[in-house]
Structure of Tryptophan--tRNA ligase:
Amino acid sequence: MKRVYSGIRATGRLHLGNYFGAVKGMLALQDSYDCVFSVVDLHTITIPYDPKTLKQSVREIIIDYLTAGLDPKKCHLEIQSTVLQHVELAYLLSTIYQVSRLEDLPTYKEKKIQYPKYVNMGLLYYPVLMAADILLYKAELVPVGIDQEPHIEVAREIARKFNSMFGQTFPQPQRFKTEGDYVPSLVGAGKMSKSISGSFINLTDDLETIRKRLAGAPTDSGVIGGELPKTGGTANLFALLRLFKLDKECIKFEQDYKAKKIRYSELKEALAKTIFKELQPFQAKRKEFENNPTLVDSIIEEGQIKCSRMAEETMKEVRLKMGLV
Ligand code: TYM
């Protein structure tokens, strides 16, 4: 059976971008593939973080996974740092990959600007560790948002290089695309992101919070008319209407826009109600897992045991091929 791997950092609660770009893809694949879904805590610590709350944040993502419908009977749930082979493989792969290519990656450049006082080796190394995550399980499909495409390309390059130096070992992973692989931000530009305040809606937000967050989303004056803009706050709100399948509303508000009589408060209210409706069952179900810590512990432990076993199989082969044993 083909393998699938994906991971999410424990930088806060899951937002709509994580849900549409990654989790929906995971849900679509868990029935027909051998899947490992991870909380990538070692990637989490490449930007400033609080060691006192990290472990709890990791657990919250596991609970979010379970609540969203990832089923430990169908897939393996992993906490990255508990499977030590990730780091071992990352180091070995780093010895065959050039530094200059890593320095050129857009995410590294962005993070350097975002955290000028926190430009660490781990940040540069991020895509190598991510390649190791995927290749450790010989995964062929990776459900992630479009922003991760450059990293998947690095994983493919590393797989090709390894295969050509040491013999055929790794498949070349492909991104599994979901319909919402680019969820726009609520601040008018860029993608929804945990690190940009005001840009996101969390899966745990109640209706009032969703309303407040949408109220802050920029729009134009509403009396411009003509064709809908392709970028900016208004375009992003329409993209969200489409993502939530509010097709009728989309047509109505587009007509209103053209006629210079669009009321953004109405549009935002329709959107808020629909988003909350989609999130409500998730929020109710989450409590079941929050109230059952023993179950969550046992799922985490089982994931570690099974994933370590799978990881060790690959590592035995890699150590041998690289001449280390
Ligand atoms: P992270 O935590 O930044 O993002 C987790 C997932 O959410 C997706 N995502 C989005 N998708 C659509 N629209 C958005 N606005 C949006 N924002 C976030 C991301 O594409 C991602 O799928 N580097 C990875 C973590 C990772 C990983 C891996 C993933 C580490 N090792 C191995 C796959 C395989 C990341 O972006 O995390």
